[in-house]
Every structure is written in C-alpha cells, then in structure tokens.
Amino acid sequence: MECVYLKWCLLYLTALVAVTSGGKMKIVEEPNTFGLNNQLVSQISRLQAKISPSPVSGPPHLHRLAGKCYNYIEAAYKYVFCPFHNVTQHEQSFRWNAYSGILGIWQEWEIQNNTFTGMWMREGDSCGNKNRQTKVLLVCGNSSKLASVSEPQTCVYSLMFETPLVCHSHSLLVYPVLSEVLQKEWDEIAQARYEDLITEQGYNKLLKELFEEAGLLRKAQQPKAEKSTTSLTHQSLEQCTQDFEKQRAEIERLQSLLTQHNISYQTTTGRTRDQGPSPVQDQHLHGDTGFIADLH
Ligand SMILES: *[C@@H]1O[C@H](CO)[C@@H](O)[C@H](O)[C@H]1NC(C)=O
Ligand SMILES: *[C@@H]1O[C@H](CO)[C@@H](O)[C@H](O)[C@H]1NC(C)=O
Ligand SMILES: *[C@@H]1O[C@H](CO)[C@@H](O)[C@H](O)[C@H]1NC(C)=O
Ligand SMILES: *[C@@H]1O[C@H](CO)[C@@H](O)[C@H](O)[C@H]1NC(C)=O
C-alpha cells in the first residue's frame, strides 16, 4: 500500500499495530486525529459541576497542590483527584456513552482531634436522591499520588492520597493555621472546658463554629424558623416546663462563664429570668443547645 496522505498512512500504521498487538488498547495513546479520543475528550468536558469549589484553605504548605491533578486507574475506571477542586471518574472505554462523572467538588476539611485528616469533596453527580461525595484521606508517602479508591457506602467514595507533605507530625495541626484572634478564642474555649464550665458537647459546638469562621468547614445553612417549629415537640406542659428550667440553668451557667471571661454576648433571652415559658421564648431556647454567646 502506498501512503499518499499522512492521515491515511497513520491509519494504516494504526491498523498494523492493532493487528500485531492483538488489538490491544495501545492505539488510545495515538494522536486524536483518528476520532477515537474525541469521544473521551467530549465526555470529560461535558461534566457539569453543581457548585463551585470552596477557596483553598488549611495548611499553607498544601496549597501548592491546588491546580494539580492525580490519576488512579483501577479496572475499567480512571479516577482523577484535583486537590481543592474536584474528584471525577471516567470509564476507560470507547463506547459512545462511556460513563464520566463528578464524584465531588472541594467543600471542606475533615477535622478530627484538632488535626486535618481529610478533604471532603461533595455535591457530585446525583445518585438516587443524594449526590455523590468523596472523602480524600491524606497519608504520608514517598511521592504525591492517589494510592487507593473504594466505595464504603453507595455513592460515598474514599480515596487515599499519599504525599510527603503530611509526613511531619505537625504538618496537619489545625491550631497553627488559625489567625491570632481565632487562636485566642480557642484558648478561651479550651480554658472554659478545662474548668468544666462547658460540656464536651458545648466545647465541640463552639469549636465547630470557630472552624467555620476560619473557613475550614462549610457553614451549615439551616433554615432557622423551620428547625424550631419541628423541634417543638413537648409531650406535656410538665415536660415543657422541665425543659425550660434546664435550658435556663444552662444559659445562666454559660452567661456567668462568658462574664467571667469578659466575652460579650447578646442578651435577647436575658428577660426569661422573671417570666414563665412563653411559646416565643421557648422557640429560642429549644432551637439550639443553649448557646446564645456571640463570640465573634
Ligand atoms: C476539575 O479540576 C480541574 C483542576 O483544577 C479542572 O481543570 C477541571 O475543569 C475540573 N472539572 C470539573 C468538572 O469541575
Ligand atoms: C490526638 O492528638 C494528640 C496530639 O496531637 C495525640 O497525642 C493523641 O493521641 C490524639 N488522640 C487521638 C484519640 O487520636
Ligand atoms: C520510600 O523511600 C524509602 C527511601 O528511599 C524506601 O526505603 C521505602 O521503601 C520507600 N517506601 C515506599 C512505600 O515506596
Ligand atoms: C473587659 O472588656 C471591656 C470592654 O468590653 C474592657 O474595657 C475591659 O478592659 C476588659 N477587661 C479585661 C480584664 O479584659
């Protein structure tokens, strides 16, 4: 066969390769003038993210990972993790309708024991009545790479990302990442917890709010009004009064704590002292776990 046009020559060569290598997928790597790759490219560019990613946050030495992407191929799928941006999955097939999907968009950190342990990528492609989401665990390794992928729950994926950037024992601590103001707040909350002026639950709640303030966790957008009406379920007036007394004691305890630490707070529910439990006040008291402090 004579090669007249370059394109035909390439096709001819490709056919040869396909025949001699037993039709293996090697051709995939060839230039996409053959139209084979176009399918894959269009699959990827067709992905529509539901939300935009959160800003880059957390340990500054990890920020250099932003804009990079890491692949992991398992069986028929390729997984792509782009830190601080997204996780996607691509079926390695040339079917016209090969699956490509978003497994999550960068949202917030997973923080455990005051340590960054993973990155939550949420609001991926829908999966039944939920959206796919992925937790990327950060573990120490010789080089930066995706080390494994699993799906512990349907449409909840778990990726393990190895990187030398997290090998130092202090590399993932949350405290050093915070502003001076927030560090001071944390000190105060910790002191209050140490003196047993707040419960473990209260401490964790304040800490969560502090992390939200720092932009490390997404602020929970809860429709307040709805929440308080649905939680207004008292079996009896007696139960209601008991609850109210408990909440009032808790509020007084917290108020004295705040005063002691010279932290200003809103006194919108301060009048409850001399009054019985009116429905309006009760909504206030029941909607949350008794925190009325404005620590910011
Ligand atoms: C995923 O992140 C990469 C890297 O930042 C970006 O180029 C790509 O467009 C993103 N894809 C989607 C579907 O958001
Ligand atoms: C929490 O972290 C501290 C040090 O940062 C460590 O000593 C302790 O063992 C950790 N606790 C748990 C339950 O992981
Ligand atoms: C990491 O690198 C060290 C030293 O180069 C080597 O001894 C070790 O086997 C490597 N570990 C892995 C998991 O590759
Ligand atoms: C307490 O706060 C007030 C202002 O709210 C300030 O004038 C005062 O110096 C503070 N006291 C201490 C001990 O921090």
From TrEMBL:
Coiled coil regions in record: none
DMAP1-binding domain ranges (all copies): 174-274
SUPFAM superfamilies, A to Z: Mannose 6-phosphate receptor domain
Signal peptide, first to last residue: 1-22
PROSITE patterns assigned: DMAP1_BIND, MRH
Keyword annotations of the record: Disulfide bond, Signal
Stretches the record annotates as Disordered: 267-296
InterPro entries: DMAP1-bd (IPR010506), Gtb1-like (IPR039794), Man6P_isomerase_rcpt-bd_dom_sf (IPR009011), MRH_dom (IPR044865), PRKCSH (IPR036607)
Domain MRH span(s) in chain numbering: 67-169
GO cellular component term of the entry, any: Golgi apparatus
PANTHER family: N-ACETYLGLUCOSAMINE-1-PHOSPHOTRANSFERASE SUBUNIT GAMMA, N-LINKED OLIGOSACCHARIDE PROCESSING
Protein name per UniProt: N-acetylglucosamine-1-phosphotransferase subunit gamma-like
Species this protein is from: Sinocyclocheilus anshuiensis
